[in-house]
Every structure is written in structure tokens, then in C-alpha cells.
Specification:
Length: 312
């Protein structure tokens, strides 16, 4: 993997491979070896770099940061077949990865699809998750309910398109992945994704089997959604951050999601959308560390970031 951006990181990034659940996952690690683990899960169509803006902040706060390329993405294995990407298998990957840290539990953070997997792990295996942070990703029970009708059903049209065999791959890969670049740039503020960063994304998307594997996450969900039982309550302290201008996932799903949490806190981030990790990286980092009780002056001045919380 190219390291064009790595000199910008204050902390040394270690690239390791971990064997879990019958596959090999590429994991980027940073921060003190003896620190509590923060595990960050990216979504579509990103890879570990989706959390690049938060790695240093968490490492500086004393966390040992683990950021995997999830199954099918980046440098991680890409098993064939839609069935290899069902939600329970994705959750199994993360549970095994948590157990490989040597810690009894971790702070789990997820954005987009990484949020969906994080919700599932937290509901199914709460003993492995000390605290949960979700960014622009509804609780899956809420998502499935809202996809059945209303505005979210229209917003989720692409999920149905992705079910078509081979055609999405052909269209998204045309002209050097122009379609995927549009997904990132049209839904974010100008400058959120630099040309150099887009080059790294193109490199990740161009790996053999990557695009089909990424789309198989959607195909597996759409095949199995009628059988998914995802309404279990979330028991650990949970922070849900939501860029209000998200065009793909409506803000109306945020409050019903946090209502399923016993210790939930919702913070709306105005002026940002689905790619809030890139648009408001410093603010997101401050909010996460404030939730974790680890705000540092190096991240932001707390006086400039008043708490905006709605508690369930």
C-alpha cells in the first residue's frame, strides 16, 4: 500500500496482518502498546484510511488504535461468494479481532457499514465492547424498518441496484473508478478528499476482487434482511454522531437508534454530511474523546466545542 500520507501522522503506523475467522485481515496500529484498545471500523467505499483523521487523536489520548481493512477491502482477504459477507460473519470477524488484542474488551467505533457491524457486535457480544461510538449509521433494526417505506426507501435505491450481478462493478470501475470518486466528492464539502487521498482509494479499489467483495456486503444484506433479528438493546455507554446533511442516511433514523441504547447520547453535527469524519475531523475527534473522558488541548479547545447532546 502506498504511504503518500503517512508522514502526516504524528504517531508511527504499524501495518500487521491478523488471522481471524478463517481469513487474514490487514490492521493498522498506532499508540502505546499497553493502552486500552480503540478499534475503528470503516464503511463503503473506504478502507482503513476512512479514520485517518482520528488515529493520532486517539493515540495521543493513550489508546492503542487498531484500524482494520474489513473483509473484502484494502489489503485484507477477499473470499469469493456473497454468502461470505453476511452480517453474522462480518461480526464474527470483529469479535475474533477483539479477542486477538489480548484485552477483555475494547472501545468500538464504526462509520457507515462499520457502524452496522459495530451495532451488531455490541448487541450480540456486549462483553467485548466497553464503549460504543457510531458515526452516521443507524441501528440495523431501525434501518430495516425505515427501508421498508418512506423517504429512506428512496434514499436506499443504490442498495437494490448493487444487487444486480456484474453491472455495478462495470459501471463503478469505468474511467478509473469515476463513479466511486463521485460518491465521495459529491456527498462532501469541497476539499474533504484531496487528489492524493483519492489516488490511494483508487489503489485500494483496484485490488483484484475488491470491488465485487465490497458490493457483496450489500448483496448479502439484501438477501438476508427478512431473517435478520437485530433489535437487541445496546447496554454499554454509546455515542451516536450524525452529520445532519447526510444524503444517503436520513437524520430521522438517529433518535430511534439511540432510543435502543440503555446509556445513549446523540450529537448532531450541523453543516456536515455522511463524510463527517473528513469534513469535521478535529470536531469529531474532540467529541469522541470528550465522550471517553480524554479531552486534550492538543485536539481542540473545549470552550469552542460546547456539548450538544440528547440523552435517551
Amino acid at each position: 500500500m502506498s504511504d503518500v500520507f503517512e508522514p502526516a501522522f504524528e504517531h508511527t503506523l504499524e501495518h500487521v496482518f491478523v488471522q481471524v475467522n478463517g481469513i487474514r485481515l490487514h490492521v493498522v496500529q498506532a499508540g502505546p502498546l499497553d493502552g486500552p484498545v480503540a478499534m475503528l471500523l470503516h464503511g463503503f467505499p473506504e478502507f482503513w484510511r476512512g479514520w485517518a483523521g482520528q488515529i493520532d487523536a486517539l493515540a495521543k489520548a493513550g489508546y492503542r488504535v487498531w484500524v482494520p481493512d474489513q473483509r473484502g477491502y484494502g489489503e485484507s482477504d477477499k473470499p469469493q461468494g456473497v454468502e461470505a459477507y453476511d452480517l453474522e460473519t462480518l461480526a464474527d470477524d470483529v469479535c475474533a479481532l477483539i479477542q486477538s488484542t489480548g484485552r477483555a474488551s475494547v472501545t468500538l467505533l464504526g462509520h457507515d457499514w462499520g457502524g452496522a457491524v459495530s451495532w451488531r457486535v455490541a448487541a450480540r457480544n456486549p462483553e467485548l465492547v466497553e464503549r460504543l461510538v457510531i458515526v452516521n449509521s443507524p441501528h440495523l433494526a431501525v434501518m430495516l424498518r425505515y427501508m421498508a417505506g418512506g423517504r429512506q426507501r428512496l434514499r436506499s435505491w443504490y442498495m437494490h441496484f448493487f444487487r444486480i450481478p456484474r453491472l455495478p462493478e462495470r459501471l463503478l470501475s469505468r474511467r478509473d473508478f469515476r463513479g466511486l470518486v463521485r460518491v465521495l466528492r459529491q456527498g462532501s464539502r469541497p476539499g474533504a478528499f484531496s487528489d492524493a487521498e483519492i489516488a490511494l482509494y483508487r489503489e485500494a479499489w483496484g485490488r483484484p476482487g475488491a470491488l465485487t467483495a465490497m458490493l457483496n456486503w450489500y448483496r448479502a444484506l439484501m438477501r438476508s434482511r427478512a431473517r435478520i433479528h437485530a433489535d437487541a438493546r445496546i447496554t454499554m455507554p454509546t455515542l451516536l454522531l450524525w452529520g445532519v446533511q447526510d444524503e444517503a442516511l436520513g437524520i430521522e433514523m438517529a433518535q430511534p437508534s439511540i432510543a435502543l441504547c440503555d446509556q445513549g447520547e446523540l450529537q448532531r453535527i450541523e453543516g456536515a454530511g455522511h463524510w463527517v469524519l473528513h469534513e469535521e475531523g478535529a470536531d469529531v475527534s474532540w467529541r469522541i474523546l470528550a465522550f471517553l473522558g480524554r479531552v486534550t488541548a492538543a485536539v481542540a479547545d473545549p470552550a469552542t466545542r460546547p456539548a450538544v447532546a440528547v440523552r435517551a
